[in-house]
Q: What sequence folds into this?
């Protein structure tokens, strides 16, 4: 049986994949994955070597896709990896159909 994309029940599927659809976003994913706690924007900028504008752009795409979560403490902004929203959509990549076997 073929599965139609509309049958997957993931209305934000494109946003989720867009959140990962750039080499810089994959780099941020790895940085955040290995962080022991949420990372301050400045620390993430230092670790990545990217300008604030580039970092902001890519983190926003990742946030829309549910890949990262932003939190604020006073005047500071922190980012952490969160795949809860993205996990069901990412499971599509590992789902095997009879035709895959």
A:
């Amino acid at each position: 049986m073929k599965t139609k994309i509309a049958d997957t029940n993931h209305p934000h599927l494109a946003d989720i994949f867009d959140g990962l659809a750039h080499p810089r976003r994959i780099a941020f994913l790895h940085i955040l994955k290995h962080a022991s706690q949420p990372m301050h924007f400045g620390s993430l900028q230092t670790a990545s070597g990217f300008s604030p504008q580039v970092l902001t752009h890519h983190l926003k795409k990742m946030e829309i896709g549910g890949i990262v979560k932003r939190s604020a403490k006073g005047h500071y902004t922190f980012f952490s990896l969160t795949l809860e929203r993205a996990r069901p959509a990412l499971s599509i990549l590992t789902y095997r159909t009879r035709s895959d076997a």
Observations:
- Helices lie at 13-18, 23-33, 41-48, 52-64, 87-94.
- The radius of gyration is 16 Å.
- Strands lie at 39-40, 68-73, 76-81.
